[in-house]
Design brief:
alpha/beta, D-Maltodextrin-Binding Protein, domain 2, 2 domains, 5-stranded mixed sheet, 20 helices, 10 strands, about 45% helix, disordered N terminus, thiamine biosynthesis, Thiamine pyrimidine synthase
Length: about 400
Amino acid sequence: MTNENPIHSSAAAGISRRYFLQVTAAGVVTATALGASGLKARAAAYEKFTWISPRGTLEVLDDYPYWSAKKAGYFGDLNTDIQPGPSDGTATVKFVDVGQADMGFPSPGVFSFAIQNGMKLKSVFHMGARDTFSLAFRKGQGTKNLKDLEGKTILLGSAAWQAITDPLLAAQGVDIKKVKYVEAGWPTWGTALAGGQGDAALSWEGLRAEWIAKGLDFEYWLGVQNSKLPANTFVVRAADLEDADKKAFLEKYLRGWAMGLEFGYQNPRAAVEAVFEQFPTLAKNLGPELGTTSILQQINVFRGDMDKRSGWGSHDMASWQGFFDEILKIGQITAPVKAEDVCTNDLIPAANDFDKAKVKADADGVKLSEGFAALDVEKIKAHLFDSAVK
């Protein structure tokens, strides 16, 4: 893992990341705390555009569109960077808010944390068209009715993930005041569940396959089958959308991601290989079959019902409004939020303005290694949800 690497603009801002994290641990960072010169350093056009992960690591398959696009040259001459960030669940919005990164990938719950704390961020590319989140149970202890979790304990990797789990449960009729959470740590919360701690653990698509590779074999209540809530999205500073040069850059940048998504849809095995080339340890731990299983789970989330979408990354405003209404009811935010005020589809037409036939030809033209070529993708697809609670 490259967790200790500093975000690229830390030096420009004149602070170490250790100091930055000490400052932000309590919430929003002020200009005074950072120093005015640090903020001015980020006011210029993007020198290097930095995307920051929400999970404290890049050694996962979740970011396959980026690695596929980068390998295929879909970002062109854009100077892009991708960073793991710290495992604090809210870092992905905090870093963007203060100019330490340019784009974050928060869950809707963490995005709501940003809104509640006055961060002027906007969602510009909705990756998770279906709800990626799930609840893992030890075999034979799962439930289809989440109200059964009242009085029980749910394990989280970060305390910030409660902002994910509360609305998920509340939307299913659960009295969240009757649920206990335990922060079991990243990346150990799944191991804690397997070891008999807690009654369930938060999980997500793609991670299910990775957990199997670690010997963690659970059964799941799956959000992709049961939830209408949105999932993770790309957010930027709202002010960047008012800058014509930055907006044009964002359109080109998101086009690269959209082309990477299309590439993965057309040839998921080639997309897995693009990630494995970056992270040999991940390749060794997962292998071709589980790697392909993981990416197919995520493609299902990222693609959603494309017949009803205006392209990769488009927001379903009704789904987002339902989410904001739900979290207002449970007190996760204290004032109503209008989805159109914090989410925009303005960049989606340009992001999807690419030659799909060329991307398909690129994907189909990849020569797969022997292990991947031998896989039956349709067979894997047929068993994607075998671990769902029966």
